[in-house]
Write a structure and sequence with these properties.
The strands form three sheets. A four-stranded mixed beta sheet has the order 1-2-4-3, with helices on one face. The radius of gyration is 16 Å and the shape is globular. Strand 1 and strand 2 form a beta hairpin. With about 200 residues, the protein is of the alpha+beta class. Helix 2 runs parallel beside helix 3. The relative contact order is 0.20. The protein contains four helices and ten strands.
Length: about 200
Amino acid sequence: MERFASVERKTNETEISLKFGVDGEGNSSIKTGVPFMTHMLDLFTKHGKFDLNVDANGDTDVDDHHTTEDVGICLGQTLLEALGDKRGIKRYGNAFVPMDEALAQVVIDLSNRPHLEFRAEFPSQKVGTFDTELVHEFLWKFALEARMNLHVVVHYGHNTHHMIEAIFKALGRALDEATTIDPRVKGIPSTKGML
């Protein structure tokens, strides 16, 4: 069965159409109006071997906050729906990704217990026009709506762009591992009998 979901979200601040396929080929068509976030989502999709279509229009004349936050909400909602009862998945994923001098690690548990542990200190407050504090905002909303336990650690680095890029690549790879169907897993991967 294809693991796919889509969502439409319209508020006074944003209008978003998002389609997400877990079992993809790394194909993306992403328009967010936030160029740096578009770039990061493209990396996430390619490295996770997902398929992602995003068409987002937001109040970027104010700043990038609402669009970035709402894309995270929509992505989390579609991931949760696409995975269903999570029958047969590995559940856990872990990825280290270097990007030149930076090293990021992302660890995921698709536990149905949302939590974000974020250990990263960026040297710069902006990458281009993008506020780097929005990385945390995006990841928290993604984890909350997907109901996953998400740990993000940047072990070191001094170029903010490289550090964030390593996070998003590691996010894709860790999520790919966690969502992989493992033929050894019979039913729900929890002693509770549900996630």
